[in-house]
Amino acid sequence: MSNKEHKKMAHRLSQLLAGLLTISSLSANAQAQATTASINIYSARHYPTDEALYNDFSKSTGIKINRVDADDAGILSRLKAEGSASPADVILLVDAARLWRAEVDGLFLPIKSKKLEEAIPDKLRAKPTDTGGIAWFGLSTRARVIVYDKQKYQKTDIDTYEKLADSQFKGKLCIRSGSHPYNLSLFGAMTEHLGPQQTEVWLKGLVANLARSPAGGDTDQIKGVATGECAIAVTNTYYLARLMRSTNSVDKSMVEKIGVVFPNQASWGTHLNIAGGAVAKNSKNTENAVKFLEYLASASAQNHFANGNNEWPAAKGMSFDNPALKAMSGGGFKSEVLPISAVGMNQIKVQQMLDRVGFK
Ligand code: FE
After folding, report:
1. Which single residue of 54, 197, 262, 308 could bond 304 by disulfide (Cβ 3.0 to 4.6 Å)?
2. What predicted TM-score, i.e. pTM, was given to this entire model?
3. Distance (Å, rounded) from C-alpha 194 to C-alpha 201?
4. What fold does the segment set 142-271+334-357 form as a domain?
């Protein structure tokens, strides 16, 4: 080998080596990125059983979850304040009207996901945008039902929402704050069924029937019936199911005292609400954010919603075995069918009515 040739060879070798080094450092980099992949979730789901859900996702994908917990309103105002600098990737809300509002306010990034579109029925997700993206997907549902003191009343006494305003229940009703999203959505739906005038009269009747000033969550209202402070109350089904499945003896004896009604079975059906998720408008990790939403629509996550938090799965064809949900709804129930946009658009009107009738 001549000196010249030797030099050439050495040069080639060093080039090759440099190439190899680049490849190996790239893959090391990719590995580092893979192990530190994370998504930021702003969540209004306030259910301790959900921890298992997040852990399962991280375990199976290696994607770390950072979570910010706040209520729906808090999350929406935070997103607005943060604007394009927002670190949020996934938004989880627990009210259909708030999901709709956030979509209208442009806080979500409409996405295309075959998995989600196949799993979640049309009526439980946003309408597609002009470009075919979908802004949010319902992931579970809950019904807003009436519980009553079995010693004082029977089912037929209180089998409609309208009857909550009957004068025979004067001083007997327990219900959480009127402006809580669960009630705003129920009242927004009532506005669709009865018209605004009738609804305001009805709300006035509710205020006249209050056993105490609205305070606490739905569980507190159920307990109010069980302890005799009130005789009828309004609650989301999963709070009731949680008590029904409790092994605590105090909870058990409370549950024995109360009956449950799925209202309006003979008319428009029981009011249903949706908990759902979306990708945040300014997400920097959209791929992993979509992956997380897809995971929430998977059989194992849906099963968790049904058995861990006593909600009805939103995904199609899910079989689940929750004794409390089965016991309270029997073979199922008729649920109200309303466009979510209509309920959402009524909310400002409802809040004004609540102010006028003094419903705190
Ligand atoms: Fe809740």
Report:
1. 308
2. 0.88
3. 10
4. D-Maltodextrin-Binding Protein; domain 2 (3.40.190)
